[in-house]
Design a protein that fits this description.
Helix content is 72%, strand content 1%. By secondary structure, it is an all-alpha fold. The longest helix has 45 residues, at 2-46.
Amino acid sequence: MAMNGMAGMIERMWLHLEESATTLLQFAVIPILKILVLCSFGYALASNKINILPAASRKLLSKLVFALFLPCLIFTQLGKAATVQAILEWWFIPVNVVLGAVLGCTLGYFVALLVRPPPQYFNFTVVMIGIGNIGNMPLVIIASICHDDTNPFNLDPTVCNTNGIAYISFGQWVGAVIVYTFVYHMLAPPPPVPDFDEKKPLVITVEDVVEETRVESLPQMTFDDSDDSLEAPLLHPRPTTPSALVKVRRKVLHVHTMLTNSSLLKNVFQPPVVASLLALVIGCVPTLKGLIFEDHSFFFFLSDSLSLLGGAMVPCIMLVLGGNLIGGAGDSELGFRTTVAIVFTRLLLVPPLGLAVVQSANKLGFLPEGDKLFQFVLLMQHSMPTSILAGAVASLRGHGAKEASAILFYEHILAVFSIAAWLILYINVLF
């Protein structure tokens, strides 16, 4: 009897383990395999034999995704789910994005000190480790997981997809601001090496230094031409320090000129950010929300049309990502050690920090109680490869574009395995 009881317990444990493994395979590995399949189509279409999706076409398709498909997806899904009460409950999503960037960049700073990349790529190393992809990849994973009726969150597929995209979209505007302010500053090109003036002597004598110092130390004076007397010209000392009011006025004018002449504000208010803000405003006004998003409303045809366009975002972005892998890693000046350190840290060391942040926030009562999908999205924000927008900023700044392409190439190849492993852990932790 004892042996039969022991055998029955072992059999039940084995069946439970088999069922758990099947569940984990279904909800963690299969979404990544779907991404891999979509990327493989893009890779094949971009190959030299087929060449339907060359580099120029991929660039145009990326612009179309960024300017049309992604904003439409964000607007329709976030607008449906957003309410004043929901926004008050979602306050930790942007905080989570900021904490992820701070902790990731801090870890990236210490890694950069340890591996000692080329000096001109020190800030680049920090950014590539600290700034993750909180938009495109999570949207694809959520769309894949929520597609089935038997999703692990026990939600209707439509509700699961709408809420998941709303959570992700609510954090995207914060990510865009971080990318086009902090990352834009960090990826500034190094200052040019000054050229030597051939007319200047290479050897400077002590007399030259003394004479130059004596001349520079003389007070600068101007003659007043209003006096015709040649015997006693009036000398007026030029003021050396402007008043505090003048300094403040100059700084205000400088900031105003920088904002109006540069493309900083234009870069921050990108189409996805504008779509997020519009969706939040309309979602928080019940009258507008009813006119646009409710079935059979007066303007429902508009939101339905935008929803059809938004549905093209996921397959198109995966085709572009797969096509971009055709070029390989390119010519990178980072070196093997720095490249490995960035990829290893971003994919394997940053996610545990995010897990600690989300678990602590849950224990402190900062997260909506019982909303597993909410926690899952927060965890995904810490587990993605480096943001594609960071590579776009590197190209915009004209510094580190090839290096960014190499990092994104290796990370997206290896992320297929790392993300699957982290999703298995997250499902175990949440359920």
